[in-house]
Amino acid sequence: MKGEVFGLLGPNGAGKTTLIRTLLDLLHPSSGNARIFGLDSHRDSVRIAQRLGHLPGEFAFGNRITGAEMLSILADIRRADLGHSDDLAQRFRADLSRPLGELSRGNRQKVGLISAVFHRPDLLILDEPTSGLDPLMQEEFLSLVREEQTRGCTILISSHELDEVERVCERVGIIRDGRLIAVERVADLLHRAGRRVAVTFGDPVDLAGLERLAGVSSLRIEGSRAEFTASGDVDALVKFLASQDVSEVEIAHPTLEEVFLTYYDEKRT
What we know:
Elements: E1 5-9, H1 16-23, E2 35-36, E3 39-40, H2 45-49, E4 52-55, H3 67-78, H4 83-91, H5 105-117, E5 123-127, H6 135-151, E6 154-158, H7 162-168, E7 171-176, E8 179-185, H8 186-193, E9 195-201, H9 207-211, E10 216-222, E11 225-230, H10 235-242, E12 246-252, H11 256-262
């Protein structure tokens, strides 16, 4: 969907990079086809490339060439203005004057990000975009993603950093063994997974009654403290707690990682 930030989730070997390389016409499918902007990813690959920015999982562009030289080549190919690249270099504190082979992993990644974004593409495909970046630059990257989305750019992010996917993506596709097994809104995933709740009671309480309540699962009891997951209709739970002497309640939303792992349960098909 135009202007959407979409996440691809899956462990190493699930097929995320293979999917991206197929979309970019770097791999050819044994059957079927892929389309971007309504164009065939193989037959119309040149037209697609003019409107697209890509950061591969392993960014490499030769060791002797400088970042500035690389961007100049890309600007000529794309017929783009280099002015935005200077702004991005300042923003990400990237040294474009040094050969890429002399840069650390994180500094090469900064140059790679600039090369993907500087021409203001209609679509960004980013494979592990924050790999090697320090926390400050990771935050800067997330701010850039939001700005590009506001501009109308569509963004596909493949990442192991589930926290950053949760923060910027509206929907995610979960890949398992080369298959797309689910496409969900992040908010829906988190809501369906339930909330993690910890309750400390002031007086002795019938905790067995708590276990029997609808929506309560994974109950663990230590003394007067009960920890459990609450999902679905929690009306009965709220009424139960209101009738008790409760000294402390902690409620936490599940992380996207916890939700994601349920899709890799061996019992699921």
